[in-house]
Amino acid sequence: MHQSRAADLLGAHVSTQGGVQTALARGKAIGATAIQVFTKTPNQWREPALTEESRTAFRRERDRSGIGSIVAHDSYLINLASPDPVLAARSAESFTAELRRCETLGIGAVVSHPGNFIDAREAGVLRNAAVITRCLQEVPGEVMVLLETTAGSGTALGATFEELAALRDAIGGSVRHRIAFCADTCHLYSAGYDLVREYDAVWRRWEETIGLAHLRCLHLNDSKTPFGSRRDRHELVAEGSLGPEPFRRIMCDPRFRSVMKVIETPKGDDEVTFDRRMLRRLRAYGRAAR
């Protein structure tokens, strides 16, 4: 693999249809050096059993592809902040299973949206932290949890840096070292962090509140909705309300050189053409600066 490509840690969320091991070939087909995957169907509770055959195939394809940076994304159904004991228990069970699958496959981190508090925000933060603590204790090892910034719609937690920092601080000290963050550009912009006009100020505030050392993944998504909309609607890079400039700056920012960058933008009909175009566009931004 070409050195500049091998070092850029850039890719997309790719399908695992046909088995999780198929994701690596899809990543390679779009020119990715990093990928994000679902290890199970994200809108169903059913937990798949990973066979030794699929585990071996995934690790073999990973080594063959040269894609070394892989994260999972947990199920959309999980709500670790829920006050409903039935949903909370089911969510904890599903999240624990996700951590175990990542451990089995050798995936180093799982991206997770902070939950919906439903009743009271502070209580939701504490519930979320307690469940994450318990799940990580049940699955010892090195798998990280990357808490993702949210757009701030409804009762979702995680739309402010302060709340994300408070959530990490509330997680048990024995496992807190396994908690880091994923920042989504669409979510940040929709939540009121102006990456277009106040790029430096946004990342300065992140550093002061959370610390850039805890930022392990960037989701590079443009937004279909205006600044501060509190809506989570992704658009193709540079073709939404953020425009090209924030993405140019991220691709040239030395602080993010070792942070994996993943697009979750519209796929189009073939799930390849748009992703290839977006990755080429992002790489061109980086080359232009150099």
Layout of secondary structure:
Layout: H1 3-6, E1 10-13, H2 23-29, E2 34-37, H3 52-65, E3 69-73, H4 85-105, E4 109-112, H5 121-138, E5 144-148, H6 161-170, E6 179-184, H7 185-191, H8 199-209, E7 215-219, E8 222-223, E9 234-235, H9 245-252, E10 260-263, H10 273-289
Helix pairs in contact: 2-3, 4-5, 5-6, 9-10
Describe it for me?
The protein is of the alpha/beta class and 290 residues long. It has one domain (3-289): Alpha-Beta Barrel (TIM Barrel). Helix content is 40%, strand content 14%. It has 10 helices and 10 strands. It has helices at residues 3-6, 23-29, 52-65, 85-105, 121-138, 161-170, 185-191, 199-209, 245-252, 273-289, and strands spanning 10-13, 34-37, 69-73, 109-112, 144-148, 179-184, 215-219, 222-223, 234-235, 260-263. The strands form 2 sheets. An 8-stranded parallel beta barrel has the order 1-2-3-4-5-6-7-10, surrounded by 4 helices. It has a two-stranded antiparallel ribbon with strand order 8-9. Helix 2 (23-29) runs parallel beside helix 3, helix 4 crosses helix 5 and helix 9 (245-252) packs across helix 10. The longest helix is centred in the N-terminal third of the chain and has 21 residues, at 85-105. It is globular. 44% of the residues are buried. The model has no long low-confidence stretch (mean pLDDT 95).
